[in-house]
Write a structure and sequence with these properties.
Two copies of one chain form a homodimer.
Chain A (H helix, E strand, L loop, with lengths): L11 H25 L4 H8 L5 E2 H8 L3 H13 L3 E5 L7 E5 L1 H12 L2 H8 L3 H18 L8
Antiparallel strand pairs in A: 1-3, 2-3
Helix pairs in contact in A: 2-4, 3-4
Chain A binds a DNA duplex (30 and 30 nucleotides) through helix 4.
Chain lengths: 151, 151
DNA sequence: GCTCAAAGCTTGAGTTGCTGAAGCACTCGG
DNA sequence: CCGAGTGCTTCAGCAACTCAAGCTTTGAGC
């Protein structure tokens, strides 16, 4: 396979490998920061997905898992005092997950403590930051299967 | 196309969000492809980490989890006929995990079936591919904690 | 050669993540 | 008001994960 050369266009396999490695490393940094605050990565991910109030069912969609699974995760967040269930106005079947102030604080602290991630970003030039952000923005809708639709 | 003179440099938070979204989407594509072949994402990830024979302990390091956990994962891979344990020459405590031909075939098929990922990559220009690959290569050592040496 | 500390793997107990099926509570169209 | 459909929870069951404990092997010191 290709060696690192400025004129070599990476193959799909090259890109997959690179993206997988970066994604895995990012995730481990995230999980480690969450663990320092007593949260599993799933709980932390859920917490990050409820910065805006979200119904249980929609949360399951965001997390890409079954609705019954979300019940347990939110149970634990609620026990820890990081989120609450609130009844939805207008449809009493629906329960809306709302992050608490404490939850928001923990979330911000976790994000701030992702030392490796911040270190990696700091080392990037403005051009690289712009390029990476642009590429992610372009690639995400396809990767997430939302091509042609708005979020 | 988009880039005008208004060069907005994304903040760390912007990049974190973008990277997290792309990483999560990639992982879901991966997990879905693996599931189609009866593998959990952990099993598939392990399978991808033993393309070269690896001792159990080293595999645990690569997967970022406890050694005792790897026992169970490799148990299942072995049951499925996708990998084998072999005794290490020179140290009979060590067991080396070796992928089987069937395991290699399944792994290749999984990677080939990550449709969204391939789709996303196909839509990239040569410049973007080079930029993304280069950025990943630069960022990975820092993100994975293998940078500089002061740690 | 023996002993003992340490290393590599497995086992067991216990929690969490996750799914599918079943059930309850509620909404909405007829 | 009734029945179908929706949203959430509960339950059973497996996989992933961790920690502590246990077994075998290794290697260093005696």
């Amino acid at each position: 396979m290709g060696s690192t050369s400025t004129t070599t266009v990476p193959t799909n396999a090259d890109l997959m490998e690179a993206l997988a490695a970066v994604g895995a490393a990012y995730f481990q940094d995230f999980a480690a920061a969450a663990a320092r605050h007593g949260l599993s990565s799933s709980q932390a991910k859920a917490l990050g997905s409820v910065q805006e109030p979200v119904p249980m069912r929609a949360l399951a969609g965001r997390l890409g898992c079954d609705a019954s699974n979300v019940t347990g995760i939110v149970d634990r967040l609620e026990t820890l005092g990081l989120a609450n269930r609130e009844a939805a106005a207008g449809d009493r079947r629906v329960k809306i997950v709302v992050i608490t102030d404490e939850g928001r604080e923990i979330l911000n602290r976790i994000r701030g403590e992702m030392a490796r991630t911040h270190q990696a970003f700091e080392a990037m030039t403005d051009e690289q930051r712009i390029a990476l952000h642009s590429i992610c923005g372009q690639v995400l809708p396809v990767l997430a299967g939302r091509a042609g639709g708005a979020q």
